[in-house]
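queue> pop job 88
queue> type: inverse folding (structure -> sequence)
queue> payload:
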């Protein structure tokens, strides 16, 4: 299938074009983090896996796709966030792009991929290698292969990212379908010959509020922030494919977003099922990668290691290309003295360095930064979707301020003084990481009241005049 401007009819790409763009968007979203959360949810939720998965789908699929649509309606992420204020828009977007880009997410795509392919490259002993007796020697033995792997990984990703128009075509035709096909093989084996059964009792928060616990797990994917970046590259790609009218671009992005969302939901449900059937086999699993790897090994033996590595490699590569391209495009517009090519190369080089050195320390401060930004991203998404919200920017500024104060305070506490008690801990839903919700709602209501009072005073002033 080849997409071109000739396929544009009535301002859209048609069914085949919408499908290809949707698969490309799915590929950009679906990285290592998306792979490993749902299987662990399936293991831990046990008999409550259905409500837990539904909660996960709301935040893991609904919020990111809704943000894509909100950005498409506004035109760009900057146009949406400028309703709060230009200074806020610039700072928030730069912090979000740095956090999900060269400071965390992009380096992690290479390091995670290497961890999954390491047994194939260095053998089983090196792959397992975390024994204390061999710690220093194992680290030295792994350093050079990891560097070479990272150089090859980022060179390939950069080569594709330097040609943004090809991203949608390649991901829509090759890497996206390949990832889906690999996942189908993995899950189908569990359906045909289940390795185990669900746990008799749900673990952790899934035992008391499975839907809420699932929602919080989807919140941890951070895909809503990634939507700020992917919305740019998808809209740009749609424009390059011949959809030039801004309104038609928004509608086309929304159609493709529905395709991506449907694919993500299907895959998440499948991975959650896979995890549930591993409950009695891996009840103490620490992460979803262990669950997937063990399931593949049980069903395919040594070939299962290769299958798992292929799934993670393709998923991580897709996300890396999408992030390098979209973040490079944003910075080339925000700081035009450096062209897109220069930004893409810089992002890839920084990410390659951090993938090999200091990633653990970066995680220590990057994750709290993301936790501060994510609630504000949800607030911005709601603002972009609600009709007429652009006419009430003052009310949304108050809401955003309330959300930002609570989420930032919690993130700073978690980063600097874990365990410190804060007044915000007494807020409703704070115990499940959603303490910012009620302040945000109250802030919006207060903002509307302030707006109404101001308009009333202005109206009385006009009548006296």
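queue> result:
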């Amino acid at each position: 299938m080849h997409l071109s401007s000739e396929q544009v009819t009535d301002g859209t790409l048609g069914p085949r074009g919408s499908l290809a763009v949707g698969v490309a968007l799915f590929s950009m979203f679906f990285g290592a983090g998306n792979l490993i959360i749902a299987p662990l949810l399936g293991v831990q939720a046990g008999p409550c896996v259905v409500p837990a998965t539904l909660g996960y789908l709301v935040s893991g699929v609904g919020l990111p796709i809704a943000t894509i649509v909100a950005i498409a309606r506004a035109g760009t992420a900057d146009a949406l966030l400028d309703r709060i204020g230009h200074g806020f828009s610039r700072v928030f977007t730069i912090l979000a792009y740095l956090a999900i880009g060269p400071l965390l997410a992009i380096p992690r795509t290479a390091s995670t991929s290497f961890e999954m392919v390491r047994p194939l490259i260095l053998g089983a002993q090196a792959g397992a290698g975390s024994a204390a007796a061999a710690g220093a020697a194992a680290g030295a033995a792994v350093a050079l292969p990891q560097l070479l792997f990272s150089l090859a990984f980022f060179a390939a990703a950069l080569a594709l990212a330097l040609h943004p128009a090809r991203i949608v075509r390649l991901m829509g035709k090759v890497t996206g379908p390949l990832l889906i096909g690999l996942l189908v093989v993995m899950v189908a084996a569990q359906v045909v010959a289940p390795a185990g059964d669900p746990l008799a009792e749900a673990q952790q928060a899934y035992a008391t509020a499975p839907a809420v616990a699932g929602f919080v797990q989807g919140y941890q994917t951070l895909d809503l922030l990634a939507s700020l970046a992917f919305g740019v590259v998808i809209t740009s790609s749609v424009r390059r494919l011949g959809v030039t009218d801004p309104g038609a671009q928004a509608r086309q992005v929304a159609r493709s977003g529905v395709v991506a969302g449907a694919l993500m939901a299907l895959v998440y449900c499948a991975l959650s099922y896979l995890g549930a059937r591993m409950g009695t086999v891996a009840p103490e699993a620490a992460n979803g990668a262990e669950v997937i790897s063990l399931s593949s090994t049980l069903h395919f033996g040594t070939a299962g290691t290769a299958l798992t590595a292929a799934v993670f490699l393709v998923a991580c590569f897709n996300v890396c290309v999408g992030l390098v391209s979209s973040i490079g495009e944003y910075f080339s517009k925000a700081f035009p003295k450096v062209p897109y090519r220069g930004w893409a190369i810089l992002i890839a080089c920084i990410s390659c360095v951090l993938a090999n050195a200091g990633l653990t320390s970066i995680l220590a401060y990057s994750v709290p930064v993301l936790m501060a930004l994510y609630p504000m991203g949800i607030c911005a998404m709601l603002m972009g979707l609600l009709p007429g919200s652009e006419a009430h920017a003052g009310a949304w500024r108050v809401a955003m301020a309330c959300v930002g104060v609570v989420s930032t305070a919690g993130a700073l506490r978690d980063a600097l003084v874990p365990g410190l008690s804060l007044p915000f801990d007494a807020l409703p839903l704070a115990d499940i990481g959603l303490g910012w919700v009620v302040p945000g709602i109250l802030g919006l209501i207060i903002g509307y009241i302030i707006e109404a009072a101001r308009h009333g005073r202005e109206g009385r002033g006009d009548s006296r005049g």
